[in-house]
Write a structure and sequence with these properties.
Elements lengths: L3 E2 L6 E3 L7 E16 L3 H12 L3 H29 L4 E12 L3 E15 L5
Parallel strand pairs: 2-4
Antiparallel strand pairs: 1-2, 3-5, 4-5
């Protein structure tokens, strides 16, 4: 079963291609949210200090928090883009990430914005 992610509004976001109990009535197009994150100078020095003191895990945890913040920002921008189009849901939602230079990363959240209707009952 595909994962469904909670959204801060009534918008449904899913990695699946359909919404159980609903019919797609209109495809509004691809929506996306992009975030670029890089560590601040102080975070870079903190990571270097952790590595030099043998605490590599602390550096990894710090960079994981930076990446998670980028994913959250990209996800929110994705939802905002879909809401601007009047979408009821986003289907086939995915993340992608790429390095930009030595220490920056781009996170892209994307999917298809759709309008939904309830399934018609069988007679």
């Amino acid at each position: 079963m595909p994962a469904t992610m909670p959204a801060p509004t009534s918008l449904t976001v899913t990695t699946g291609d359909f919404i159980e109990g609903r019919r797609i009535s209109q495809y509004l197009g691809v929506v996306r949210g992009i975030a670029v994150r890089l560590p601040t100078i102080s975070q870079g020095f903190q990571a270097l200090g952790n590595v030099l003191s043998g605490n590599v895990q602390a550096s990894g945890d710090m960079f994981a928090e930076i990446c998670e913040a980028a994913r959250a920002q990209a996800y929110q921008r994705l939802v905002d883009h879909a809401l601007e189009l009047g979408a009821d849901a986003i289907i086939a939602m995915r993340y992608d990430a790429n390095d930009i230079g030595e220490s920056a990363s781009e996170v892209l959240a994307y999917g298809t914005a759709v309008k939904l209707k309830p399934l018609e009952s069988a007679p």
